[in-house]
Amino acid sequence: MIVAIDGPAGAGKSTIAHRVAEELDFQLIDTGAIYRTVAYRALEDGKDLDSPEEVATLAASLHLDFERNDDGENVLYCDGEPMGNEIRTPHVTRASSQISSIPAVRQALLGIQRELGKRESSVLEGRDIGTVVFPDAEAKIFLTASREVRAHRRLDQMKERGMDGDLDEVLAEIVDRDRRDMERDIAPLKKADDAVEIDTSELEIEDVVQRILEVVEEKK
Ligand code: C5P
């Protein structure tokens, strides 16, 4: 079974998808981590981010896999190396948004996302899971929240990871990323027609989790 959870940055996807996967005992695939890893490696290897060929060739050459660690978390490995906070810096965040609009990069990452998702029942979180990666997913959720709420959440998340941040800057970055994600020609961020939309602005995490579990139960 595939549970697709899409939505913009800061809508609560990571925390909620994590809890849903835990409740269902499904594997969690964070597809944003895949785009972030390509961006991180492109920066590390000195690739020209404005060159679609260079970045797409790199994306196709990487060996990406998820493995469960002792805490039951699905960690992304790139060429045998576990990916951690190095893919969560503001620099990598901006670069991931940039490289994710390259069609050949998305194409290179499509197969791997499908392969990983088909290995076992999965919760996949991203931007285009319900529309492109798994259009036949049994359960599709589209999470939203106001920009202000999302900016506050991002800031809290950065602080938890020991990073500094400024609310106005985070808000500007979110607005910019939303625009890029929604306006790109290929696989733009949008709600699938058959997705259930949940505005998380005023809701507690556990309420959202329960609502998603109900949707999953109905589709089982
Ligand atoms: O979800 P997260 O913020 O980690 O994603 C990082 C970037 O990767 C996003 O800004 C988005 O541009 C891109 N992305 C994407 N499609 C996905 C997941 C993430 O384009 N399925």
From TrEMBL:
UniProt EC number: 2.7.4.25
UniProt-annotated location(s): Cytoplasm
Record: residues binding ATP: G7, P8, A9, G10, A11, G12, K13, S14, T15
InterPro entries: Cytidylate_kin, Cytidylate_kinase_dom, P-loop_NTPase
Domain Cytidylate kinase: from-to ranges: 3-217
GO BP annotations, alphabetical order: nucleobase-containing small molecule interconversion; pyrimidine nucleotide metabolic process
Similarity comment text for this entry: Belongs to the cytidylate kinase family. Type 1 subfamily.
Record protein name field: Cytidylate kinase
Organism this protein belongs to: Persicimonas caeni
Encoding gene (name): cmk
